[in-house]
Amino acid sequence: MFQLNTGRDIFIAGLCLFFSIILSSCSINKKAQTYSQNPRIYNNFIIVKPEKNDSLKSIAKKYYNDSSKAWMIAEFNNIENPTTDKEIVIPLRPFRLGGLYPMGYQTVPVLAYQRFGVAGNNKSIISQAGFEAQMRFLKENGYKVITLDQLIYFFDFKIQIPEKSVAITIDEGWSSVIDIAYPILKKYEFPATVFIYTGFTGGKKALSWEQIRFLEKEGFDIQCQTLTHRNLTKEKKDESFFQYFNALERELVDSKKLIKKKLNKECRYIAYPYGKTNHLVVAMLKKHGYRAGFTTNRGENPFFVDIYNINRCVIYGDYDLENFKKNLYIFKKGY
Amino acid sequence: MNKIALKLILVSAVFFSGCSGLINIPSDVTPQKHHHFYEIAVEYHNKDELHIALFYFNIAAELNPENRKITEKIASLKQTIIHKSESHLKKGILYYEKKSCGAAQREFLTALRYNPENYDALEYLKKNKYSSNFIKYKVKKEDTFKSIAKKIYNDNEKGFLILYFNKVNAQTELKPGTILNLPVIPKKIKKPLRADEKELIVANALIDRKDYDSALIILVNILKNDPENREAAKLADISYYQSGENFFQQKKYFNSLKMFHNLNPEYKDVKNRIHIIKEIIKKQIQEAEKFSDEVCYAKGIKLCSQKKYFKAIKMFYKVNPDYKDVKKIIINIRKLLNEQAESHYKRGVKYFVNEKLNKAISEWEKTLNLNPVHKEAKKNIQKAQALLEKLQKVK
Fold first, then answer.
1. Contact state of A27 with B21 under an 8 Å Cβ cutoff
2. Is A7 an 8 Å CB contact of chain B?
3. Which of A85, A284, A329, A334 has the most CB atoms at less than 10 Å from its CB?
4. Residue B23: closest C-alpha in chain A
5. What pTM was estimated for this model as a whole?
């Protein structure tokens, strides 16, 4: 069929062979490069082959620039630790907004503390050992303490949070926050929010503004618990509606302004004194730029909770660890 | 030989190019292939977690974009998700309208579980669960703030709540159809307003109307009876400040200063305002004084030319001593007047010697008019008067 009569024909055939080898080797290189790349980056995810000393935290730090998001990789891949023999997927967008499962939905416990010290007759005082034990329990049992900003974004259906999320709040602003709670929270790297009532700040047993600034610098979130800690839902004896209305405005606005002046920060959240609120208070909060309000009603907080009536579990000084555990509702079965 | 060589070359070419499709990766890498994720996707699909299944199918598709089976699966799953989510939303709305809150919540949550981007389901879910803090009120013809407050709260004095929670002021004409947000008021709080509270509402409305003077009349009265009334004090501060500001704009600086002086110097920029106004007033006084110097000086010169030196010196005394040559003129006039006074004095002495006592007194009085500190003239008048009295007694 073919005849290679001349040296020219042989040269052409050799050239064909050469190019076919070059082309085929190019094709080999292309595929090999695709599969051997580490990481393989796509629009909504990254595939990574963990290296010997990698942890989920180091991977999260590398790809999210935030080691605290290790849980997102763990939950997506259903693993506790990475292994070098198995690639993992790093999701780049939420995959379970609202914590919705076919059998139920996620809820977030918000813990409310008040004072720390020697627990005696005053139920609101938590002992140092008791608080330490509770925080250790959270750490050792895989609970992730989130900030109130994260909590509110979760309620807004904007971000996903760890399955075992908890938030920690401390009311009123007693000086024991800095003496007892701060070192323990720092030890476990847990964020917390302190709701201060500004009329108390600087008092004998209260945090001073200097201490509050220190706590803020250390990562604590400082928010507002009104000016005088009056019950916002009750008019005083002989107080008319108009006086009550004006008093409400002072409680919500003056304290916010003072915190803005002292800390140069805008308060967005309020803890209602005695945990009580009503429609008028909420209407006024909305007018003055508050994004959420916290009660002391025990209960679950799914993403669709009323953000001006967020439930909190008050932790009392006489609670043992069993009582404490009962407040950690993280899942509600059924719809 | 040549044929064999050609066949060898062609077989080699086919072999090498064909092998390229089979060769994958270096042996030390164990990448997850698309079917691994496809399997996970199917698992989630079977568990009815369609949204997460879709995520995994998308991973499989990214890893093997040419696999039609996966792309078709994704397309059909997307449709299923939308269909299921919408269907649960519709059911939820039906329950919502029937006020079956629990059933509605279940449907909205399911709609969101299938499709987290179903924002209608999200909105209904929250609306279904919580009552609003506001009543939406649609303004009707001839409605006023008071009449609305009467209708909603059974208390027309609560009209101020409408102003507080809506972007309207007391002068705003309520257009029919406008939607107003009226806060829900707890039933317990229903005490009627006291007289001063009613007055405060009126003062508030006057301030809205920028009638600060009228507002101040009311507020000053409230504060007179109740100096601790914080709301009245707050409104009075606003009124004094705005009134001061208005006078300032009208260049009525004294009035403006008066208003600002009623305020605490720490209020807003009051301290600075007072300083500015004082500077302006000081300049104005200086200007006025300058004008006055000019006029008095000219009048003084004119009087001098009419030889009315006594009136002239009075005029020059009104002029700033540093103005032009006023000091020198005054010294010269003074000298001239002293000379005239001396001349009258001497004439008086002559009359006295000639026992014309009345004429002597008259001359010395002229002396004193020209030089009020002329001691001799004063003494001599007394002497002459004493003599006159004695003479009259003798007669």
1. yes
2. no
3. A284
4. A28
5. 0.65
DSSP labels, B190-255: -PPPPHHHHHHHHHHHHHHTT-HHHHHHHHHHHHHH-TT-HHHHHHHHHHHHHHHHHHHHTT-HHH
Is pLDDT above 60 for B159?
A: yes
Residues A128 and B347: their CA atoms lie apart, in Å, by: 113
ipTM of the complex as predicted: 0.85
Give contacts of A 109-148 with B, CB under 8 A. Answer: none
Contact check, Cβ <8 Å, B25/A101: no
Nearest-angstrom CA–CA distance, B262 and B245: 13
**Tokens standing for residue B387:** 């003599």
Whether B184 and A23 lie within 8 Å, measured CB to CB: no
CA A158 to each of CA A74, A96, A301, B332: distance values in angstroms, whole numbers, following the listed order: 20, 11, 16, 95
- Interface A–B counts its CB contacts (< 8 A) at 173
Q: Both tokens of residue A15? A: 């050239």
Helix (H, G, I), strand (E, B) or coil at A123: coil
A127-136 pLDDT, tens per residue? Answer: 999 999 999 9
Structure tokens at B186: 């707890």
Q: Please give the Cα distance from A312 to A275 (Å, whole number).
A: 9
* Shortest Cα–Cα distance, B251 to chain A (Å): 35
Partner-chain contact B183 A235, CB within 8 Å? no
**CA distance, residue B246 to nearest chain A CA (Å):** 28
C-alpha to C-alpha distance for A157 and A296, rounded to whole angstroms: 23
Distance from CA of B114 to the nearest CA of A (A): 9
The per-residue b/e assignment along B278-299, b for 16 or more CB within 10 angstroms, e otherwise, is: eeeeeeeeeeeeeeebeebbeb
Which residues 226-265 in chain A show a CB within 8 A of chain B? Answer: 233, 235, 239-246
- CA separation, residue B173 to residues B142, B147, B178, B210, B264 (Å): 10, 13, 11, 16, 35
User: How many residues comprise chain A?
Assistant: 335
For residue A39, cis peptide bond before it (omega within 30 degrees of 0): yes
Alpha-carbon distance of A21 to A4, in angstroms, equals 21
**Min CA distance, B124 vs chain A (Å)?**
11
What is the DSSP-derived secondary structure letter of residue A236? P
Decide: helix, strand or coil at residue B375: helix
**Chain segment B256-302, per-residue pLDDT in tens:** 999 999 998 888 899 999 999 999 999 888 887 777 888 889 999 99
Token pair recorded at residue B139? 């303004």
Amino acid at A324: F
Closest residue by Cα to residue A98 from A328, A310, A327, A305:
A305
Amino acid letter for position B385: Q
